[in-house]
């Protein structure tokens, strides 16, 4: 079994960076040459006397990234222990450092911006790893893997968050490098998989029985991004905001908690101790969430509700087919719980989803159930015959969440769980034991039960409504687990059996909701008062209003750079591979007059404020000041009206990978301004005719030559 090194020393020399593991002195040293970036493995003992500038200890190598002018090795300098799961310690990335391959002599605006984006993204992004536990895979998938293969090769590609950054090391592993054109297994311990999402472990008790409960949310690296800049699916079938959430319960866990030494015997073994001869039981329940799998987008225009763009289901059919083909292959039957509104602007998205399921399922049969609150309380689509294709394993369930829970009646969401009761019983959950026999079998868990299907939940954002439903499904399943373990009597609920455990469970799921929401929308989740307290309150509704306003501001004015950071970290945009002449990618290329309007509005409001509050001499005339205030009020009103009516020009769009709808909307709005605005139109048209990207590039290159 090849596991990542948990202790690495990095030696910085003028011609290379050398990585070694003090606890594995016989392991080869990883050398990355400067400034070429060539990778090779060397005998660590031969490098002992090499002169180096400094030596530092790191927790692992996050990866290598090539920007416009240089390559950088990103190393994890500080990792915080989160807790132990099945005896394996899990860590959170706390601090990193960028090691440049060459000393840059000139200042470059784009290079500095790239570095700032990456540093900010890594600092704010919740990333987790383990030296001995495959955190990218569910317990059920881990039980099916060959534990003799290196940890990174077992990783689920969807959740291997730093997969792009590890490309140089992985390519060297599979193909070799200069002077050694063959696979290089010696580099395996230097490749460390990291996930992005949530990892919370609690060593607690339930009715006096010690248990470990963990909640893990893994965010997919495919089509990742921010709320309004990443919707629907792409041509490969990857859904936006796709997350896999796993709730794990461990009975008789090994060495749970944070105390004690993580290794046993040698530092490369990740397990701690035993469980006093008791059989360790592992129970796991998995859910997924992801954007509605059609081609759609919400176009920001500074209005509170963005405009929805939706392409035909025929165009998106191959992508949706690829998406659900993967989902069925990985999870079995898929129960597609759709929580969007049946009325208003969300209707088009709902209908498109239903049309897509109708096309995928052979002989679809639809059932609609209504009640006093809504005409479409439930809407289900399933095959009416015996399954003929794999897509007949799709089971669509629409639930009008907002209509049913209107007026703080959140308890009515339980109707969905009741409706799915038979499916949840048939679905089951994963259960396995770690016994002496499993140790003989290479440490692989002995499987006793498998989860045979998955619930895929979505609303418009896959955040607030989705969080509520997923926590309710997890609660229902946890009740079942405790009953099967003999910890509760049949028909009991753990919320009535152990109030302290109930409090911990609620807060754990509320934390999960906030973390998933922060990474996508930039704020905590709504409706967490329900998750934390079990009741919808007026204070929670006011907190949701505050979150809604914050989301509006962040999604319109701050999410462009956040999306750029996603695209840069995940390799969607690669500065080193960009076309020649791609300098100044962050320059604001709007006409100067368009850029000046917000400043004009701010100055106008300032002058109005000054005019209203400046003391007037007793014998001075009144009208000059009144005219001053009226004039600047009119200018402010015109400026604000222009900004609101041409909102596409003032949204902070991503600059590295422009969204097609954003480019189209920008040009349409500019054309409208040029044609219709009598004040700015002629001036903007003159600016557009004289605008030359080459002028900017040549000027910048000249400045660098001077430096």
TrEMBL record:
One MF annotation (Gene Ontology) recorded for this entry: phosphatidylinositol-4-phosphate phosphatase activity
GO biological process per UniProt: phosphatidylinositol dephosphorylation
An annotated GO cellular component: endoplasmic reticulum
Alphabetized Pfam families for the sequence: Syja_N (PF02383)
Statement: the UniProt record of this protein carries the keyword Transmembrane: yes
InterPro entries linked to this entry: SAC_dom (IPR002013)
Domain (SAC): residue spans on this chain: 118-522
Keywords: Membrane, Transmembrane, Transmembrane helix
Transmembrane segments: 596-615, 627-651
Protein name (database record): SacI homology domain-containing protein
Naturally occurring in which organism (per UniProt): Neurospora hispaniola
